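FIELD: query
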Amino acid sequence: MELIGPLSQLVTLQDLPLRGPISDNDLVVISNAGIAIKNGTIVAVDNWESLLTSFPNANIHALEGAYVAVPGYIDCHTHICFGGNRARDFALRNAGVSYLEIAQSGGGIWDTVTQTRKCTEQELTQIVIKNANKHLQLGVTTIEVKSGYGLSVEEELKMLRAINSGNNKTAADLVATCLAAHLKPKDFNGSNEAYLDYLVTNLFPVLQSENLTKRIDAFIETSAFSASEIAPYLQSAKELGFDITIHADQFTTGGSEVALQYGAISADHLEASEDKEIEALANSNTIAVALPGASVGLGCAFAPARKIIDKGGALAIASDWNPGSAPMGDLVCQASILATFEKLTTAEVLAGITFRAAAALNLFDRGRLIAGNKADFILYSTTDYRDILYYQGSLRPSKIWKSGKLVSA
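FIELD: result
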């Protein structure tokens, strides 16, 4: 047993709802607080003196100075396994060149596919570890990581093996997702339907036999796959027991409808979602995931986060860290920007990058500082939790615990 404290404030996020609006007045903030942990799990959070009385034989990790504790952040949508970068694309977009023109000139997703295919599995593993550790230093203790830059059975397996290998070599928890249905590769000789069938027949069995992932993602968009094309693919994934998540409504609508049809755990992007899609999402069990980094990177509208929450939806916020549209990889900065434009409360933002994001990964043992949860938490050198978003990401974590272990100080 170990006691960590005293803390100026501890934000528990206990008893907050998965869905709908949250007032900052609903936050449980314990002053002069501490955390009791054992075997990587939170045993109790309480007033510091009360913990000292309750656990007189515990080892004391005494803190000097003022700190605020919040749960470890959860980034439920990233693409941090990739080769190369796309700085050229970013410069061209800012100079007024269209996405289509960039793709036709050799840029876009296919550029990253080409560079990722050149990497060995070991090189990709090191890239994943490097990016995951950078995220961890910013307080992100659980990170979803997609494939999708291989676009063949062999290359997708290389990526997913690298992600799983990286998970064993970083303190952060990595959750692998197969995004082989990112788009049809240029070197595949056949239709979209034929490519998807090729994946179902040749990739899905290996994913299961090697236990590489329990999650299947697909990009539903005019530049990728239509609702009718993707239907047999998602049906097969569902019948095999995979969890489904969807890149939905990024540039055009239709993807979120497919997500709901197949009971997707999350529908991500949603920048193009309108009232019809917002209403349907809010009345479903699917988590809506806003990706403000993509909006900043592409210079487009943000997902209608305020409307989704006000309609009663469950809104998570993720970074979409990728080499093309969202290279920043700073979850708190992006969430702070989204809060400014969408008028989200501090409580809604914290929920969106903790327990609501965990729900988008089908994880319910983290994201709140409560007894029984994983001991994943962050300390900031401040006396007021509101400073975290006020400084829009420039206030960095001072100490980070993952599964009860101090991993950054």
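FIELD: remark
The chain has two domains: 2-71+368-408, 74-360.
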